[in-house]
Design brief:
globular; about 280 residues; Rossmann fold; alpha/beta
Length: about 280
């Protein structure tokens, strides 16, 4: 994971989502290779620009099996994308003092970013757009070859977004999307009770999607997924959501738990109105 804002890295590391932090690309790639050979998992945060990381991979012929980009390119010229060659602090200063230069640097960086991904894909990397308009931003920066028809974005892009290529076929096509609930009592015991109740409402043998989410909610407590509010997120279809909501209503009515708020996630199937975007 490449990140230019160290505060974001520190938060993820403190929460346990990242196991190692480094700004040394040689050390990072060596460590990743060692864990790969041991067939063990590790999450590594690179404090630096993703373009530098990809450049290092191409120059050193490092094979990357799976690659994506979660840059906030829906706000590419408002600071969502930090161009290669400037630090996070310099990026913030340029946004205020020299927006034209910042925009030029973004465009140049997106060009380089695209060609590095293209080089890796030609060597066997599977790349998908996470859904934050990275490919659209590359197209708008002047790289017309990223579009399927080479003219505009109406026919889509040469690489898939994970909405159309992964999440759609696996979940959205079947009406499954994420929703969340928050235990307004702020009591962790209430969250545990709702976890168990939601699990009881899911038939793991109905579909593969149900089995995956049954396991997810079953192991949520053990995996320490709470990082703020006493909240949980889960994928279900309309039928599954109704069963869970009715069960929660019953528990609140019987004073087994405090108030529970249910809401949709921004990535919900009902909000995914474009195959090239993560959210509406």
């Amino acid at each position: 994971i490449a990140e230019v804002d160290y505060s974001r890295i520190k938060t993820r590391h403190d929460q346990g989502w990242v196991g190692m932090v480094s700004d040394n690309l040689e050390e990072i790639c060596r460590t990743a290779r060692e864990y790969q050979q041991k067939k063990e998992t590790i999450s590594i945060a690179y404090h630096g620009n993703i373009v530098d990381l990809l450049e290092y991979a191409v120059e050193n012929d490092i094979h990357i099996e799976l690659l994506s980009d979660q840059t906030s390119c829906h706000a590419v010229y408002e600071g969502g994308y930090c161009p290669q060659g400037v630090t996070f602090e310099e990026r913030t200063r340029l946004l205020t003092e020299d927006r034209d230069r910042f925009n030029d640097l973004v465009d140049k960086s997106l060009h380089r970013h695209f060609h590095l991904i293209k080089a890796l894909v030609e060597k066997g990397t599977y790349f998908f757009d996470y859904g934050n308009s990275f490919m659209k931003a590359v197209f708008d920066a002047g790289v017309k070859e990223i579009s399927k028809n080479g003219v505009d974005e109406k026919d889509g892009f040469i690489w898939p977004s994970y909405v159309e290529d992964i999440m759609g076929p696996m979940l959205f096509d079947y009406g499954y999307g994420p929703f969340r609930w928050v235990c307004l009592s702020e009591k962790h015991d209430d969250l545990v009770k709702t976890d168990h109740a939601a699990m009881e409402c899911i038939d793991p043998n109905r579909r593969g999607q149900d089995r995956d989410n049954y396991i997810w909610i079953r192991d949520a407590e053990e995996n320490k997924l709470v990082v703020g509010s006493q909240a949980r997120i889960l994928y279900q279809d309309a039928e599954g959501r109704m069963r869970i909501a009715l069960k929660f209503n019953e528990m609140v009515r019987n004073e087994e738990v405090g108030p529970v708020m249910l809401g949709r996630d921004h990535h919900d199937v009902s909000g995914t109105d474009s195959p090239f975007r993560e959210t509406a």
